[in-house]
Amino acid sequence: MHSNSYTLRYAIFFTAFVAILLAVAASGLRPRQERNIAQAKRAAILQSVMEVDPVTLENDYNSLITEFVYSIEGSERADAIAFDVDLKKEMKASDSERNFPLYIYSKDGQTRYIIPLQGKGLWGPISAFVALDADLNTISGVVFEHEKETPGLGAEINTAEFQVQWQGKKIFGEAGNFISVKALKGSGNDIEGKPHEVDGLTGATMTLNGVNTMMSDELARYEKILTSINS
Amino acid sequence: MDQIAAEKEPYWSPKNKKLLTDPFSDDNPITIQVLGVCSALAVTTQLKTAMVMAVSVVVVLVFSNVIISAMRNTIPSRIRMIVQLLVIAGLVILVDQVLKAFAYDVSRQLSVYIGLIITNCIIMGRLEAMAMSNKPSASLLDGLGNGWGYGVILIVVSFFRELFGAGSLLGIQVVPDALYEMGYENNGIMLTSAAAMFIIGVIIWVQRARNPKLIDAS
What predicted TM-score, i.e. pTM, was given to this entire model? Predict the structure, then answer.
């Protein structure tokens, strides 16, 4: 049987030892981790408009993408850096204070407008990059990302099969009113000739509710920005 | 065997020796000891995540077994569970940090499950039953054996779940398109946790049918 003072000293020293070890490891690895996070974000942005080659990712991004930040009224904010805007924090701010990043892709006369969105899934945050054609209405590609959605169910929003359906859908109605695009409940829905709907995923209703809220509420905030670019 | 060993008998069976080298032994952590079932349900929708989870658990189990075993004579018995938990949690956080730095894609897929390793009963179970009362060399083998025994079940379960639930293996489609055109459909229930329970149940059934002495053993 060990004495009380031994037990106490043991607990204190061992806890301190583990704490120091983890602190050293975490701060030592941080630069690499942050680089990985930034690379993943660049990859997701590019993925909404093209095939991503991990080797040339950084060059492609720098040469093809121009970053902008807008206010909700559509005026450009030159002092903010779009890539560094943390959408999770921005969503807590009031609309007038919020920064709205926009990435413009241009290659061989082709222009795509990439809008980053943030929302809530069933278990954790979800995000999207929505690429619009030069008409600022037709979706040319989307990338959905999630942190903790159920594998095989909600996590399927990240698959090519689900994302490819959004291509060619329109976010504005014929009268120019904002409608957005929503995923229907369940799979196997008939979406032929419907410009504002895509087929859903069985067993992922809660995650898709989050996707739909993000695609309507958050995307709607870009309406004036898109109008100002268009004019 | 030292004094501490005499105080703490292994929880389940005295057959630990056999378990060191034989992952398919009569003492598989999932099917016989029925430990770690929660994570076996959660991470087995796809073969790839099951494999990474298996490797992560083997690494954490081996290291925590060896570390606790090396420290076993210094650990005050009244706070031994907390010390064990500290070692496990420290190792898991370390694995998570290293994955984030060197295998970011894998770490993103595993973010949900990494935390599950800490609470995985296999690890604490092996620390209490094995590492607290045995030499580091034996504990290392025990960690390898149990980690592998756990991993094998995970891989078998995820093989069937991915094959029948998504028609693919390791993300590559294996069920031919022609079959789908003939009316074959992926089985949605395979993607839910309930299917893992069925498959584990079938594995236990097969294992016991082939090995009659297990019927009385537990």
Answer: 0.70
